Amino acid sequence: MNILDELERFEPFRKLSGRGKILLSQGVIRKECSRSTIALNKGQVVSGAYVVVSGRLRVFTLAPNGTEATLYFINPGETCVLALNCLFNDLLYPAWVQAEDNTVITLIPGAIYRRLFEQESTIQNMTVHALSTLVFRLMTELEQMHSSHQKQRLANFILLHASSQGLLQMTQQQIAHHLGTTREVIARLLREFVANGLVRTQRGSLAILDASSLQKLISFPG
Amino acid sequence: MNILDELERFEPFRKLSGRGKILLSQGVIRKECSRSTIALNKGQVVSGAYVVVSGRLRVFTLAPNGTEATLYFINPGETCVLALNCLFNDLLYPAWVQAEDNTVITLIPGAIYRRLFEQESTIQNMTVHALSTLVFRLMTELEQMHSSHQKQRLANFILLHASSQGLLQMTQQQIAHHLGTTREVIARLLREFVANGLVRTQRGSLAILDASSLQKLISFPG
DNA sequence: TTCCCTCTGTATCAGTTGTTACATATCCGG
DNA sequence: CCGGATATGTAACAACTGATACAGAGGGAA
After folding, report:
1. Within a 10 A sphere around the Cβ of A111, how many other Cβ atoms?
2. Cα maximum dimension of chain B
3. Which nucleotides of C are covered by protein (CB under 7 A)?
4. Would you state the pLDDT for residue A7?
5. What digits encode the pLDDT tens for the residues A83-105?
6. How many other CB atoms are there within 10 angstroms of residue B80's CB atom?
7. A208 close to A142: Cβ distance less than 8 angstroms
């Protein structure tokens, strides 16, 4: 299975005309990343559009004191919009990106992507849609950040990222990174959640016991 | 001077072909707003693309306790990207918008805008560029929010929004709104700035005395 | 001038968060 | 089963922030 076949699993690329395929084949790169392979650093020149084939990318900022904060995730079939962004505006990449285990990405060189964008309306639509989605995620995150306490944000994060069985397989350190705080703060909040019977904690994971109370907490931090 | 002439002051519209103009003329609306005319409310259905002709729009979120936080401004020639966003994704508007004094906006109905987007590459480019710019602004704001204290954010805000003479004509309440905090906090921080000779405060405005020290403060909150 | 409204200055207190420091627990490999 | 590495639990403190309360100060209108 070559790169183009992989790309064609995703609708915008499946719809490409023959010319699109020819364009695409010129210099598209496939990359396999393992956890902690850093895909892109802040300030780096963006060389093309990234499309996630499998796995997941995490985009985050890094404060001077070392605490991270996740901005958003990039799932299979999605492109890194920030990279698109830089591509179209000749800007340097403004954040850090890390791959989770077994992530495969393809890199479509900038020149090719720009040509595709001009000629293929499905690529145009995908681009606009991806940008729009990101704007929405960022807005939501910003709004949460300025109107919620950590307790609310944690409750929200747990509900949002837990599996359908109510299990969240993450260390407290990882959760802390996502929320832009430290492990101790997460531990303190989780202690309170546990005391109130909202969750159960184990090493490396956490189980929701009372989802509705967690939900209420988001609106009424009481 | 009719609406289309006004729109043509801005490049993307100047470049429109004859057909584009015909499309544009069908139902474009001109609106004049005075301060505190609220252009758009959270949860409202977005009826079209907004282009600012003169004046300025402010987009902000509103926390349950009533504190505002400015997300970004929309200057003449720019469009409200959030509205575009909703337009292309059939979403409800996710924030509040307020006009400053003497702001004139034009409203291009959604159906027309979508057609223009499909047929006119200048409109495509404008849309992508506007979305990209917004993504960048939001990212920057988010990063600042999670890595800076109010002191740093205030110093940054003052430097960024002061006139070339170093004058910032805003009440402390307005500044507080922009940073998502309360007036008293701003007063407390400004007191410190004044004590250190960084700024001078007057009723309704504030003058920068030592820009370079303010700049240093952003990096080293000391 | 005088009244009134808005804007500013200040003090104090409570709540939240980040930091430091250390104890304990769990997992994994040898 | 024994260490080392990693993850968690806990306490105590400092810093920052938001909330409350009130005292002036400035500016405009009658």
Report:
1. 14
2. 62
3. 6-12, 16-21, 26-27
4. 83
5. 777 777 667 777 888 888 778 88
6. 28
7. no
Domains of chain A: 3-145 (2.60.120.10), 148-219 (1.10.10.10)
For residues B87, B91, B92, B97, the Cα torsion angle rounded to the nearest 10 degrees is -50
- Whole-angstrom Cα distance, residue B207 to residue A148? 33
Q: How many CA atoms lie within 13 A of B43 on its CB side?
A: 1
Structure tokens at B150: 């109010």
Q: Confirm if B167 and B173 have CB atoms less than 8 A apart.
A: no
DSSP, collapsed to helix, strand or coil, labels residue B77 as coil
Query: Judging by beta carbons within 10 Å of its beta carbon (0-12, 13-18, 19+), is residue B46 exposed, middle or buried?
Result: buried
* Positions on chain D within 7 A of a protein C-beta: 6-12, 16-21, 26-27
- Cβ atoms of residues A97 and A42 within 8 Å: no
CA angle A110, A112, A113 (to 5 degrees): 65
Half-sphere exposure of B156 (CA within 13 A, CB side): 17
pLDDT given at position A37 = 60
Whether CB of A70 is under 7 Å from strand D: the answer is no
